[in-house]
Amino acid sequence: METKVTMDKIVNLCKARGLIFQGSEIYGGMGNTWDYGPVGVELKNNIKRAWWKRFVQESPSTYGVDAAILMNPRVWEASGHAQSFSDPKMDCKSCKQRFRADNLIEEHSKGKVSAESMSTEEMQAYINENKVKCPHCGNFNWTEIRQFKLMFETSRGTIDGEKDVVYLRPETAQGEYVNFLNVQRSMRAKVPFAIAQIGKSFRNEITPGNFIFRTIEFEQMELQNFCREENSFALYEEFKAKAKQFLLDLNFNPEHLRYHDHEKLAHYAKAACDIQFLSPLGWEELNGIHHRSTWDLSRHQEYSGKSMLYLDPITNEKFIPNVIEYSIGADRLTLALLTEAYDEETLENGETRVVMHFHPAIAPFKVAVLPLQKNLSEKAKEVYALLSKEFMCEYDEAGSIGKRYRREDEIGTPFCVTIDFDTLENDTVTLRDRDSMEQIRLPINELVDYIGKRVKFN
Ligand code: GAP
Question: What pLDDT is stored for residue 247 in this prediction?
Fold first, then answer.
């Protein structure tokens, strides 16, 4: 039987074991912000590394960039965000809580009604006709639906009183579009090619209480493929498959993933699909694959006055490429992998062990070095020094060996190396496997090779 994972269990484990803490906690927190602790930062960095390896390092025609978060405000006019990047919001006049109208409808109908393709008027009518009540105080006392802008504004200006509004980027994608020709020319790239980046994005989200699923500051891993129109649908299908394969290779249960094709498309889009995962909240979007036609580059050509035409070196044709986008949130993927990895097992002695079955490549620590007794610590520290040159390692000499194994299981460390008195005699150690809990004896000089082979992401 599968373990029932709840958001509370994940939040509590993350706090207790140094993965994720509430943002600004000592000041009572700051809604929808979270801080990664010493264990969590390793997990998220490993996830980003695995993505970069798969989609940049192993893809000869994909080029990485790291664009500025603050961009010329004209970028957001060209992208359409300045005019229309907003959520339909309603305030409860009784308890002053703020909600998204589409979420209220979906929760009220228990997921049977999709608000995705509803207009503001249709949402208003549904809420009035069905007397949808405030989930917080239970009253039916709403303001009208109003559009709530999602872009954070800040300002720049050196002279007192003269300030220009600039925006914190709500997606990383625009940094890829505006550098289309810089990358193409400097790298002598030929269509089809792609630009990828990982970076922070910011959205003034009004949906609270779902941990790192939806936050106001988050990291995106985005990739824009530039291609000819005639190849665009094949590339779209290819990326739907590649995006899913990446998740399966990170040990997702195939039954916890599904495609969700969008019913309502943006006017410029030719197709759009999410991959959803089965989270403790139900089926939720994990990533998106979007066929964006020539819209983004055409708009930047129009707003910047700079040509975005690609010159085909063989046919001498000039054209604006189509874009196939693949976008996934690093934090949302971290949450999905936490819920996938979580397990509670009953041991032979009746005790329960909580274990995170992370793919070894994303496990925060690859190996823990544990001296059986404190007087073995000198030898254990030698082994730690050897292994920590290659891997993130833990060193723990506090408490019984059983308790130390449990602590490592809870953060998903794939291997524990135990130093005992035989180690002093023959330079061998015990290596314990997290998942099977089986132990083998290995010479110290074979450890790096043995562990290294098993913690790779292919
Ligand atoms: N450039 C396209 C784009 O940004 P999106 O569907 O708005 O598309 C892509 O976002 C992905 O970014 C989502 O599938 C999700 O994984 C992540 N994401 C979006 N908003 C988020 C938020 N507020 N908090 C955490 N992750 C978010």
Answer: 98
